[in-house]
Amino acid sequence: MALFRRGAKSATTDDVAPDETAPVADGTEPGPSEEPETVRPGGPWDVEDDAPDLARVDLGAVRIPGIQGMELRMEVDQGSGVITGVSISLDESMLQVQAFAAPRSEGIWDEIRGEIAQSIGQQGGTVDDLPGPFGRELLARMPVRTPEGRTGHRPARFIGADGPRWFLRGVITGKAAVEPAAAERLEQVFAQTVVVRGTEARPPRDLLALRLPGAAPVIGTVAPDERPEPDFDPLTRGPEITEIR
Q1: Strand partners, 162
Q2: What is the CATH number of domain 42-213?
Q3: pLDDT tens digit sequence for 66-104
């Protein structure tokens, strides 16, 4: 279910400067164009925001708040060795998090929801687009094969947050996908995550680089042919590195 396609909207990066002036209908001199303000009153947070002071695990593009009893896994692409996502297991539920570059001028979650819903439908699943704590979200029933060889469905919640030149995507599975009380702690993890976008020019939907806890920051960017295609399928997992907190 690889829905993030590099260059889907434009072959240029999101850091290409827009026109310095914007036309004004009343005939006055045009003024500087402005970037729309992203409203995230309760998080997730940008690194430049005045986020709540919490202990967080620094994973490069994201800083994940530590919660007692959680198990943190870094997902690694087998072909390139690149870390593609982080999963947080807690109380029989899981939250998978990935951060992506986004355009300066607009968020991408509205567009992405439609692509996810279409992909799940093509695979025989069903999707409801519902309001949630972070805005619109998807409640999906993903087709799976049972141990008995039958076709079943596994629930999954797709949540998202548009930030300044970034997009944070989360997938909640397990009890938290269908039980609001079970979802509260994982929703807090998502809400208190800090995104570190960086200043590099990146194409919209480009996966932001993650690193192991305590590892030195990577200087520069990963070459495009070394980046794995982001995969939205929460049921397919690669090699993992686990940390218990």
Answers
A1: 167
A2: 3.40.1000
A3: 999 999 999 999 888 899 999 999 999 999 999 999 998
Could you tell me which of 234, 70, 85 has the C-alpha nearest to residue 156? 234
Q: What does the buried/exposed string (b/e) look like for 144-169 if buried means 16 or more CB atoms within 10 Å of the residue's CB?
A: eeeeeeeeeebbbbbbbbbbbbbbbb
Is residue 101 within 8 A of residue 165, CB to CB? The reply is yes
Query: Tens digit of pLDDT for each residue in 21-40?
Result: 344 444 444 444 444 444 45
Q: Which of 119, 113, 114, 123 is nearest to 153 (CA)?
A: 123
Residue appearing with tokens 């039958």: 150
pTM: 0.75
Beta pairing class for 56-58 and 166-174: unpaired
Which one-letter amino acid corresponds to residue 227?
Answer: R
For the beta sheet containing 56-58, the strands, ordered from the edge strand earlier in sequence to the opposite edge, are: 45-46, 194-195, 62-65, 56-58
Phi, psi of 136 (to 5 degrees): -70, 140
Amino acid at 3: L
Tokens of 119: 């992909």
Residue 114 falls in which region: left (phi positive, over 0), alpha (psi -120 to 50) or beta: alpha
Question: Six-digit token pair at 77?
Answer: 């692409």
3-state helix, strand, coil in the chain (%, to 5): 15, 35, 50
Query: What is the full DSSP assignment across 71-121?
Result: EEEEEE-TTT--EEEEEEEETTEEEEEEEEE--SS---HHHHHHHHHHHHH
